[in-house]
Amino acid sequence: MASNDAKSTAEAFLSKFSRGQTFVRKQLLDANQLRLFSLTLDRPHLWSSSGTSGGSTLEDEEPLSGTPIPSYYHLVYFTPAQLPGRLGLDGTDTSFNPDAPFTRRMWAGGSCHWVGANPDASAKALLRVGEMATETTKVLSCEPKVIGKTGEDMLVVRVEKEFRNAKDELCVVDRRNWVFRTALDPTKPATVIPKPAELPASELEQADKGKIVQEYSRDEATLFRFSALTFNAHRIHYDKPWARDVEGHRNVVVHGPLNLMAMLDHWRDAKAATSQDGIFYPEKIEYRATSPVYAGEAYRVTMDEGAVHQKVADVNVVSNDGTTCMRGAISNWS
């Protein structure tokens, strides 16, 4: 059972947002920002269909005005807007932080629904390059919980973001779950958990049977560019001494949303391989982060063969040591 401190902090947090207020921002969906983002993800085309970019790669030119923005690439827009002095000690955006000591934020999971991409609609409501879009944010809940393994208190904050296009049509509903744990003392060195041994190649091959697999090993340059483009100053992603000595990670941490996007791109690539039409959106994804992924360590994004044709496809991020790091369920429209 959560402590009285955790419960009172959750109540105080909710009291700040209990009037149902929303936070609205407008932004131009800039072509160059999206271009750099896709290149950071090592994807020279936004879509598999060359017709969406005139045959050129993003290394050659920006995406054309009106090009649909791929699923969850909206993360590169509406980034945090805070002066340096407003950031947390760990570099995180504090716009929706509970009070101390619950200020150590982690992206734990959530869901995203592409409501405007319904293929049965007479016209799709999509976020497109070059348009003015609107983001509306509201707090849904703040719940005190206890971490089972350690007995430590934490708060789970759920936030909903709606994204509308220039016609004020609802395109995307993005619900994010953030975990807030008690802040760490930078003067007290953390215990670093050693890296488990990777599974033998024969076991990895056996685990891959019947699956579509994409392997990654993210380097620090990719994490730096991802942090810069999403304006995410969380130090665990680029400051190795902080990640290791203060937070107990063995290296800088791969962003949770980067793995989320890898799952969605994996599904999208499998979908495109079976059709002449190169633009695909799922109906929704539900996902949960379960273990960190570290720079320089190999991991796989896996999905059963044929799952892309089912109503729900299970897509997982699995470290080569056998640890499941993120679970996702992607729903097809039909």
UniProtKB/TrEMBL annotation:
Superkingdom of origin: Eukaryota
InterPro entries: HotDog_dom_sf, Mitochondrial_HTD2
Family annotation (SUPFAM superfamilies): Thioesterase/thiol ester dehydrase-isomerase
GO molecular function terms listed in the Swiss-Prot or TrEMBL record: (3R)-hydroxyacyl-[acyl-carrier-protein] dehydratase activity
GO cellular component terms attached to this protein's record: mitochondrion
Name the record gives this protein: N-terminal of MaoC-like dehydratase domain-containing protein
Organism encoding this protein: Exophiala spinifera
Taxonomic lineage from the root: Eukaryota, Fungi, Dikarya, Ascomycota, Pezizomycotina
